Amino acid sequence: MRQADSEGQGDAILEWREAFDNGELNALHAACFDHRLFDDDWWAQVNRFSLGWVCMRQSGELVGFVNVAWDGGVHAFLLDTMVVLRLRRRGHAARLVAEAVRHAKDSGCEWLHVDFDPHLRDFYFDACKFAPTEAGLIRLR
Ligand SMILES: CC(C)(COP(=O)(O)OP(=O)(O)OC[C@H]1O[C@@H](n2cnc3c(N)ncnc32)[C@H](O)[C@@H]1OP(=O)(O)O)[C@@H](O)C(=O)NCCC(=O)NCCS
Fold first, then answer.
1. Strand pairing partners for 75?
2. Averaged over 43-54, what is the pLDDT?
3. Of the residues 67, 123, 124, which should be mutated to test ligand 1's pocket, given the most ligand atoms within 8 Å of the CB?
4. Domain positions in the chain
5. N or C: which end of the chain has fewer CB within 10 A?
6. Per-position DSSP letters for 115-135, written without gaps between them
7. Whose CA is nearest to atom 14 of ligand 1?
8. Section 107-119 average pLDDT
């Protein structure tokens, strides 16, 4: 499902559950999260475990992504929100997340969770309208 940018932010297109190449997503992830290039099979992973995912493309290039992991019921969880460095602070990630929220709602989910580093409080609480809540985390490895 494709949706053209309607807010005058270039030719960025949002796509829900559309195809991507593992290579382009691995490259975007490495650039955004500052690690070496991996060879992960994202396509198999999201098709098996996710409610969906949003790709943002500009002139065909993958420039943004967010993964909506799912418990198979009413809970979904946002992972790997990312926008290529050169396009940041233009509202693209907020639109990516809004698209994920819309589809999670339409799919019957009741709760969308996220966690993040402290410097992204304004992004998730203000720009994306998540409510602060108590949450917990155990590092397993
Ligand atoms: C986090 C990320 C997705 C934000 O993308 P973006 O397109 O720049 O975000 P937006 O333009 O939609 O931001 C909207 C607002 O959120 C806040 N915000 C966004 N990024 C922020 C940052 N790095 N630090 C502080 N506030 C931030 C700002 O209030 C911003 O509005 P402003 O630009 O008018 O000040 C992007 O910086 C990224 O890919 N980072 C690397 C990967 C990462 O850490 N992802 C988060 C995983 S939890």
1. 111
2. 98
3. 123
4. 2-127
5. C
6. ---GGGHIIIIIIS-PPP---
7. 91
8. 98
Distance 49 CA to ligand 1 centre (A): 26
Distance 122 CA to ligand 1 centre (A): 8
Structure confidence by residue, pLDDT tens digits, 93-105:
999 999 999 999 9
53-82: pLDDT as tens digits: 999 999 999 999 999 999 999 999 999 999
In sign, the C-alpha dihedral spanning 35, 37, 39, 43 is positive
Q: How many CA atoms lie within 13 A of 68 on its CB side?
A: 26
Query: Looking up tokens 């992004």, which residue turns up?
Result: 123
For residue 10, what pLDDT band results from cuts at 50, 70 and 90? low
Pair of tokens at residue 16: 């829900």
CATH classification of 2-127 is 3.40.630.30, yes or no? Answer: yes
Q: How far is the CA of 118 from the centre of ligand 1 (A)?
A: 12
